[in-house]
Amino acid sequence: MKDNYYKLRNSNHRNRKSSYSKQQSNYRKRQAKKLNYKKVFVFFVAVILFLYLICFGFSKLFSKDKKSVTATTAVQEDVSINMAVVGDIMCHTTNFYNAYDAIKDTYDFSNVFTDIKGYVENADIAIGNLETTFAGKDVGYTGYPTFNTPEQLAKNIKDLGVDVVSTANNHSLDKRYAGLVSTLDELDKVGLSHTGTYRSKEEQNTILIKDVNGIKIAFLSFTYGTNGIPVPSGKEYCINLIDNDLMLDQISKAKALNPDLICVSMHWGDEYKLKQNATQEKLADFLFENGVDIIFGSHPHVLEPMEKRTITLADGTKKDGFVIYSLGNFMSGQVAENTMNTIILQLKVTKHSDNKVTIDSVNYVPIYMYDKGSGQSERYKILDINKTISAYESGNKNISEKLYDTLKAAKSKIDKIMSME
User: Fold this and answer.
1) Rounded CA gap, 308 and 221, in Å?
2) Same domain for 202 and 129
């Protein structure tokens, strides 16, 4: 009986053990299936994340580098600018007498420029030759032969649209060194850039550079002399005289700044001659051979020929060069033959994608310094010759036949000198 009991007990125990083992096995199988599901889920999530990174993440990660590469490899576009250049800005006694406003006790020259202002202010850069001084009222305003002009002219020139003036000429020291310094101070007050005369050696060694729409232009200026007025001892820096060594030094300093163009204003030549002399030609060759691109001549007070040429440098490379031997007067009270006939020179310059610079076109606007005569209000006005001739031919009764004939004759002379033949 006891034996049967133990047999039954052992049998039940084995059955329970077997059942428990089966349960444990089934549990492990269920757990294994759950782990497999988790692994599959994690795997799919990992795949999705990887695909996302490929499509979006990496592109964002390296987008900065791509932009940098794009910027580096982008092709530089051609850049063109238009230059306007005028001749001698002078002021004789009759000019500032007529500009005086007794009611306001001041001077205003702006009406002189109204007919031609658009040509100057619409240029990308405008250049002129300032052939007077601004030594101040206390010194006394004077005309020829030692000029001292009301400083209001500086503002009127700036308002006209002129950006740069050459100040090295035979009248720079008309009011001695103090007048030269005062002139530069007045130009600085109105924001007119200048080159050719200086208040210190440091200023002389600082080359005027203008960045015009991405084209860097260096401006230099030199004069043959100062009308016998001695340059003050110890202040030889105050004016650039025409001297090969000084010109080479200034050109070298300009080149060190890596400009795209070097423009030089030269006060040279013979007064009232309609053609350049041999010295002007020799100096122009010297300047071109040493890296100058454009030369603006002044001093004769009348127009002289202009020339565009191809320059071959020492290393065999070629480039465009341009010289006008004299731009004549722009504003003055002179009445001698040809001194009232002048132009606004227009140059189109292009910097190409390979950094080569070309002078694409040379044009001019014929203008005339009209003097109505003493006692007339707004006595002086610079006229656009072509526009005035056209207005007369269209029936404008405000233009006299005499003025029309004068302008026709002036235009003929201008065109003949400027023909570049």
Assistant:
1) 20
2) yes
Residues 360-390: pLDDT tens digits?
999 999 999 999 999 898 999 999 999 999 9
Final residue before a domain boundary, out of 52, 73, 94:
73
Pairing of strands 341-351, 79-89: antiparallel
Model pTM? 0.83
For residues 349 and 242, membership in a common domain is answered with yes
Tell me which long-range contacts 282-285 makes (C-beta under 8 A, separation of at least 24): 283/242, 284/323, 284/325
- Indicate whether 230 and 277 sit together in one domain: yes
Closest CA to 179 of 151, 205, 158, 219: 151
Q: What is the pLDDT of residues 79-94, one digit of tens each?
A: 999 999 999 999 999 9
Q: Are residues 119 and 44 in the same domain?
A: no
CATH of the domain at 242: 3.60.21.10
Q: For residue 408, give Cα distances in angstroms to 330, 381, 398, 415.
A: 18, 17, 17, 11
Tokens of 84: 């306007």
Of 50, 73, 96, which closes a domain? 73
**Distance in angstroms (rounded) separating the CA atoms of residues 331 and 86:** 9
Strand partners, 209: 218
Q: Tell me the pLDDT tens digit for each residue of 92-111.
A: 999 999 999 999 999 999 99
Which residue range forms the structural domain that includes residue 371?
79-417
Q: Are residues 24 and 119 in the same domain?
A: no
The tens digit of pLDDT for each residue in 165-206 reads 999 999 999 999 999 999 999 999 999 999 999 999 999 999
Do 27 and 174 lie in a common domain?
Answer: no
> What is the Cα 20 distance to its own chain's centre?
97
Same domain, residue pair 199 and 57: no
Query: Which residues lie across from 264 on neighbouring strands?
Result: 220, 295
Looking at the predicted structure, is the pLDDT value of residue 31 above 70?
Answer: no
Going by pLDDT thresholds of 50, 70 and 90, the confidence category of residue 54 is low
The closest alpha carbon to 213, from 310, 363, 357, 74, belongs to 357
Tokens 């405000």 belong to 398
Instruction: Kindly state whether residues 54 and 109 are assigned to the same domain.
Output: no
Q: How many domains does the chain have?
A: 2
